[in-house]
Write a structure and sequence with these properties.
about 300 residues; alpha+beta; Creatine Amidinohydrolase; Arc Repressor Mutant, subunit A; 5-stranded antiparallel β-sheet; 4-stranded antiparallel β-sheet; 7 helices; about 30% helix; globular; binds manganese (II) ion
Length: about 300
């Protein structure tokens, strides 16, 4: 990794971390998630980065991939657990980080993922095995009296690539694959008192461009052309209901946008990210950092 790329990662990391902390302070009982999401994404842009994906604001048993819809009326309630998962990128170099905010009585659940993340980051160095990171997460969460979410994992990152190998499971599995110098990885433990796995919900709020294939609908064509600006990174349905999108010919109708999105997913032009819900509706907490693998690892989102 050259110095220029390293600097971009460090800047993206600093911005993502600042925004994560500011968002956690801003979130209050009664606040609409839509207002919080728009504020979070503006904070990323004001600091000179772009959102690497729509901010995920997943409440309670929803583990990930909830971002408010254009007409979303959900508000934070007393007793909620809110995961704030923020991504910032500079020229495609992504920092991915998350925090959980407690509006109830869930301190132990939050501590489980915070401690698991610290334990996992402590294992990172050149030559460390992926399995050792997973074991640190699994053992820490179970020792706290919770279970890790087995089908959500940490991941590698690359320029304009949000998920690549290695996958870093949150449950202890033998994996001797070694971390290599300058690999960029996101470590993201999830803990729950529920079943320990998530299932797809019917709701889809986040998409990414997958493959250029012929499409018939005029609206679908306009959407495909508009979303090229995200370079394959995930985008929100909400981002298609903006003035910027309408100036590019995206219809000013949620109904038409949804119809076109459905066509594009069916044709394999877009990839969809359904909201992920804990299988037994257990409360879920998450913590996440992005780390550059070195002998002295650089936690860019610290
Ligand atoms: Mn994340
Ligand atoms: Mn991630």
């Amino acid at each position: 990794m050259n110095d220029e790329v390293l600097e971009k990662y460090i800047k993206a990391g600093k911005i993502a971390a600042e925004v994560r902390e500011a968002s956690a302070k801003l979130a209050k009982v009664g606040m609409p998630l839509l207002e919080l999401a728009e504020t979070v994404e503006s904070m990323v842009r004001e600091r000179g980065a772009e959102p690497a994906f729509p901010v995920n604001l997943s409440l309670n048993e929803f583990a990930a991939h909830y971002t408010p819809q254009h007409n979303d009326e959900t508000k934070i309630s007393e007793g909620d657990v809110l995961k704030i998962d923020v991504g910032a990128h500079i020229d495609g170099y992504i920092a991915d980080t998350a925090i959980t905010v407690d509006f109830g009585n869930h301190a132990a659940l939050l501590k489980a993922t915070k401690d698991a993340l610290a334990a996992a980051v402590g294992v990172v160095k050149i030559g460390a095995a992926i399995g050792d990171i997973s074991r640190a997460i699994d053992e820490t969460i179970r020792a706290s009296g919770f279970v890790p979410v087995e089908n959500l994992t940490g991941h590698g990152l690359d320029q304009y690539v949000e998920h690549k190998e290695p996958s870093i499971p949150n449950i202890s599995l033998r994996n001797d694959t070694k971390l290599t110098e300058d690999q960029v990885i996101a470590i993201e433990p999830f803990a729950t008192g529920g079943a320990g796995h998530v299932k797809d919900s019917p709701e889809v709020m986040i998409f990414s461009f997958s493959a250029d294939k012929p499409v018939r609908g005029v609206d679908a064509k306009k959407i495909v052309s508009f979303v090229q600006r995200y370079n394959g990174l995930p985008f929100a349905e909400r981002w298609l209901m903006t003035e910027q999108a309408q100036n590019a010919g995206v219809p000013n109708s949620l109904f038409k946008v949804r119809l076109a999105l459905r066509e594009l997913v069916q044709r394999g032009v877009l990839y969809s990210y359904p909201v992920l819900r804990e299988a037994k509706a257990g409360m879920v907490s998450q913590a996440e950092h992005t780390v550059i693998v070195r002998d002295e690892p650089i936690i860019i989102t610290k």
